[in-house]
Amino acid sequence: MSSKLVGVGVGPGDPELVTVKGVNALREADVVVVPVMDSGERGRAEATVLHYVPEEKVVRVVFALNERSDRARREAAWDAAGERVAELLRRHASVAFATIGDPNVYSTFTYLAQTVAELVPGTVVETVPGITAMQDLAARSGAVLTEGTEPLTLVPVTAGAAVLKDALAGPGTVVAYKFGRQAHEVAEALRETGRLADAVWGSALGLPEESVRPAADLDETPLPYLSTLIAPARREGGRGGKL
What we know:
The chain is an alpha/beta fold. It has 7 helices and 10 strands. The strands form 2 sheets. It has a 5-stranded parallel beta sheet with strand order 3-2-4-1-5, sandwiched between helices. A 5-stranded mixed beta sheet has the order 6-7-10-8-9, sandwiched between helices. α3 crosses α4 and α6 packs parallel to α7. The longest helix is centred in the middle third of the chain and has 21 residues. It is elongated and about 60 Å long.
């Protein structure tokens, strides 16, 4: 029989935001893989998983999650992680991989699944959706993501603040991920496009160190890398104005 690799979205960090289906997938798997940085520190995915499965069932696999500039080092880490998970799949019928947010939205699981499919042909790959940081931030801040016919644009600021500025110049709500290291540039882009007043940002959502603040408070102070920003659409015309 083919082995199964399941990518499970475990949300932004609050253990209560893991879906029932996600919890069941974690518990039904023979082993649960969690990604860790090469520094070895416990990440959000691992901390969340340990609320639902015993530690002896968890396998920590190193990814160069904090590597942005050295492509060769990053891909070597992906290859090594893929080999480790492939080894697990050769010995177990079901392996779950826990990822923060959703496994199909800017997730390490994408690269892992591609590697494993080549190493263990016939592996069945499935995903269980998870709540994203933008959904959690919207709930915690009261920001409405979309109304009526408004578009929603999601931008990773690792691509540069200029990409965000282009999105802000367009219609609809704009969400920025991973903008913490470029907080000052993001604030300038919001100011220049007239989107600063209603925008909010958050980090460590659902964790003791959580911060949810107006974007107008942004300055040159560096923020956590996984900070999220919501710049709501410009809304006029009252209730249902965008229908």
